[in-house]
Amino acid sequence: MAKSVKVYSTSTCPWCVRAKQFLQENNVLFENIDLSDNQSAREELMRKTGQIGVPVLDIDGQIIVGFDRERIKLALGI
Question: Which positions ≥6 away from 52 have C-beta within 8 Å?
Answer without folding.
Answer: 35, 42, 45, 46
